Amino acid sequence: MSRLIHSLSFALLAVAASSSFAQSSLLNVSYDVSRDFYKDYNPLFQKHWKAKSGESVELKQSHAGSSKQVRAVADGLEADVVTMNQASDVDFLAEKGLVAKDYTKKFPNNASPYTSTMVFIVRKGNPKSLKDWPDLVKAGVQVILPHPKSTGNGRYSYLAAWGYALKQPGGNDKSAQDFVGKLLKNAPLFASGGRDATTTFMQRKIGDVLVSFESEAELIAKEFGKGEFDVVYPSLSILTEFPVAIVDKVVDKRATRKLAQEYLDYLWSKEGQEIAAQNYLRPRDAELLKKYAAQFPAIKTFTVDEVFGGWAKAYPAHFKDGGSFDQIYQSK
């Protein structure tokens, strides 16, 4: 009898340990080029959570092209939170009932803890004198960017060029489509994600210009050295936002809602905003933005809402089957 009681006690302890482990682990499914930011952020949050709750937490990351990531979550990848680089991908999860439809109201700043913009990364010395969007459509210029239909980085690049053309004197959708068509014809390939685009440009030495997030430029500098490239700020670009959300069905199943909420809330803390700025993401905190002003040059930007009526309109118009991208690419 005592043996049976001992065995039952051991089994109960094992179940309790398993339950405790489940409650102290979290999976963040994110976009391709965010890995360096979260590599810095996660240890900071683990320290914060330990001090606040007394618990240790295991933080797991998954990174790839943003659309690929949200499809994986929709197909069953049990992410507690998603931290993406555009609203259309989180909207996709909201449509599937995995994320709250009003997720942008669950956190400040439309649930985007920091921002960035699209810039040009060129060969050292800028041998082809690429200074603005019209230079990227010139004959003989090779443009490297991720695939606009499957990556947030690629979609932002596409819309940045479209918005620039639209805002020129006499600009309209026809002239913008023609302009973007010329740019895409200068793309020798489409990378699978932001980091793949960087590898193509920096390691494989393909292309004259890489269009990417401002934050990616400094990450390239860390890996390859500042002397390997120059950064060019165009006269006009797009404001990029990075929405975050809790995956409701997963956190309710795993009993991790409190942990997930704190993980995302902490992105707006002074410490989280400092890490963002150190990773060349423009913090929402006004004091920190001022502190790091030297690394964030002033640039004129427009938003997806201002020019395209929001992602709910921009995505189907440009990136769904039969949209403007397909129309352009079929004639490429």
Task: Walk me through what this model shows.
- There is one protein chain.
- By secondary structure, the protein is α/β, with parallel strands linked by helices.
- It folds into two domains: about 1-115 and about 240-295, Periplasmic binding protein-like II (D-Maltodextrin-Binding Protein, domain 2), CATH 3.40.190.10; about 115-240 and about 300-330, Periplasmic binding protein-like II (D-Maltodextrin-Binding Protein, domain 2, 3-Layer(aba) Sandwich), CATH 3.40.190.
- It is about 50% helix and about 15% strand.
- It contains 16 helices and twelve strands.
- It has helices spanning about 1-25, 35-55, 65-75, 85-95, 110, 150-165, 175-185, 195-200, 215-225, 250-255, 255-265, 270-280, 285-290, 305-310, 310-320, 325-330, and strands at about 25-30, 60-65, 80-85, 115-125, 145, 190, 210-215, 230, 235-240, 245, 280-285, 300.
- Strands 4, 5, 6, 7, 8, 9, 11 and 12 form an eight-stranded mixed beta sheet that branches.
- The longest helix has 22 residues, at about 1-25.
- It is globular and about 60 Å long.
- The N and C termini lie far apart (about 80 Å).
Summarize the structure.
Helix content is about 50%, strand content about 15%. The N terminus is likely disordered.
Q: Layout of helices and strands, plus pairs?
A:
Layout: H1 2-23, E1 25-31, H2 35-53, E2 58-64, H3 66-74, E3 81-83, H4 87-95, H5 108-111, E4 114-123, E5 143-146, H6 152-166, H7 173-185, E6 190-191, H8 194-202, E7 209-213, H9 214-224, E8 229-232, E9 237-241, E10 244-246, H10 248-254, H11 257-265, H12 270-278, E11 282-283, H13 286-291, E12 301-302, H14 304-308, H15 311-318, H16 324-330
Parallel strand pairs: 1-2, 1-3, 5-6, 5-7, 9-12
Antiparallel strand pairs: 3-10, 4-7, 4-8, 4-9, 4-11
Helix pairs in contact: 2-12, 3-4, 6-7
